[in-house]
Design a protein that fits this description.
Structural class: alpha+beta
Largest sheet: 6 strands, antiparallel
Number of helices: 2
Number of strands: 10
Strand order of the largest sheet: 2-5-6-9-1-10
Order of helices and strands: EHEEEEEEEEHE
Number of domains: 1
Radius of gyration: 18 Å
Helix content: 10-25%
Strand content: 25-35%
Distance between the termini: 12 Å
């Protein structure tokens, strides 16, 4: 019996805005200043302190629309943010501001030539959300006894790009991701830096 892999991807791309998605904190803790002191680019909004209210970053919306159009998506007239509730130590509010029922953009596609032959990879959705902080398990004198939290990344704007399960090999998935990375970098909305986590990919695989 021959099994065929069925692969869909979820890609998170940090947007190259000057400030975070819901507050005025700088995003300049990343390259070239990667490794900025922990918790130096934070405020009551991105720390989730009571009474602090978010204000949406217009440039983040513009960048997300730019990426969605490049992927052939339809921009929705109305999109809504919602709370995605879960507890991680590096998520200070106890929920993530994301989009679900009415995302920013839907129904796109990318055409691949590839070794597996021509293939159309459908894009289910492109939506905006905020990034979480970082759990640091090493680099401090007491790291053998505890985990430290850096909230500098908390609130950095992300787009999440979700594909249909249209990929049938690891090579095709790699080709799609490479094409997507090149597109986002060319558009100027993401730096493509996987080493520092500004572009991340989750693969959902079944056989």
């Amino acid at each position: 019996m021959r099994f065929e892999p069925v692969i869909g991807l979820e890609i998170h791309a940090q947007l190259l805005t000057v400030s975070k998605i819901f507050c005025g904190c700088s995003t300049a803790f990343g390259a070239p200043a990667f490794g900025a002191p922990p918790n130096t680019h934070v405020c009551p909004v991105c720390l989730g302190l009571p009474g602090a209210l978010p204000v949406l970053n217009r440039t983040a919306v513009d960048f997300a629309i730019r990426a969605a159009l490049a992927l052939g998506c339809t921009i929705q007239n109305t999109s809504i943010f919602a709370r995605k509730n879960y507890f991680y130590p590096d998520l200070p509010k106890g929920y993530q501001i994301s989009q679900y029922e009415q995302p920013l953009a839907i129904d796109g596609a990318v055409e691949l030539a590839g070794r597996d032959g021509p293939r159309r990879v459908g894009i289910i959705r492109v939506h905006l959300e905020e990034d979480a902080g970082k759990s640091l398990h090493e680099g401090f004198s007491d790291s053998d006894r505890k985990t430290s939290i850096d909230y500098n990344r908390s609130g950095v704007p992300l787009i999440e790009i979700v594909t249909h399960p249209d990929l049938r090999s690891a090579a095709a998935a790699a080709e799609f991701f490479t094409r997507l990375r090149e597109t986002l970098v060319w558009l100027g909305v993401n730096d493509g830096n996987m080493e520092e986590g500004s572009l991340r990919c989750d693969a959902n695989v079944s056989v």
